[in-house]
Amino acid sequence: MANEHVIFIHGLWLHATSWAPWQSLFQEAGYRTSAPGWPGEPDTVAGARANPDSVADHGIDDVVAHYTEIIGKLDAKPILVGHSFGGMIAQKLLGQDLAAAAVAIDAAQIKGVLPLPLSALRATFPVFKNPANRHRAVSLTAEQFRYGFGNAIPEQESGELFEQWAIPAPGKPLFEAAAANFDPHSPAKVDTANELRGPLLLMMGGRDHTVPEAVTRATLKQYRHSDAVTDILEFADRGHSLTVDHGWREVADATLAWLKQHSL
To answer: Which backbone phi and psi does 74 adopt, to 5 degrees?
Structure first.
């Protein structure tokens, strides 16, 4: 539906400008779009790499508050499209009735999700190997990016995406998510029982190492007590890079089709 506002929310290790192709496509489809960075995130990839401390120590609540403030300046509830931790943030905002709908792509685990596959532990090891990283920004090497993001695409493409989009990310959200099921007040808690929220689409890549499909299927189960629309869609041969790699258009087109299906 023309003139709806779509906010794109990135996750850890990708810069906000990585959404540019999606923004162009959605604008052609009649939507207004924006892709605001996380709190403290410099406007460019180069700036983010040069100033890693600018994003250090920002946790989930900080990010939610940041996007809540952005949404508050709009004239209507936006549609949210989030990837990885951006998918978790989108679900939190939707649960708080701050969005008309949300699409959560390979979303980080929310409180209540129990599976912790070994590949996810390996993908996040660069953060967890040092407890001090909770308060730091952490960068991936090209090899680590290849495992966590680019395992389902050619190695050369993974390297190119790393060079183009990879930035340091705060370690704090990962520590918060890891402790969520032991913390009654965890910032990773989402209001999954909200009956009045807008529609939610969970997307997953079947070859994702960072957020394996078991995590997304367990996330879907968390919504079983709500009659609000909660759909799931799998891209069986895709990894965590699915929003930025050569197959991004398939994922974006599926998102647009789902929005149209729900008259959004």
So the answer is: -90, 165
- What is the number of structural domains in the chain? 1
Q: Give the tens place of pLDDT for each residue, 203-261.
A: 999 999 999 999 999 999 999 999 999 999 999 999 999 999 999 999 999 999 999 99
Enclosing domain of residue 41? 5-261
CATH code, domain with 25 = 3.40.50.1820
- How far is 247 from 162, CA to CA, in rounded Å? 16
Tell me, what DSSP letter sits at residue 73? T
Phi and psi torsions of 35, nearest 5°: -135, 75
pTM to 2 decimal places:
0.96
For tokens 């994702």, name the residue. 208
Exposure b/e, 58-73, CB count within 10 A at least 16 = b: bbbebbbebbeeebee
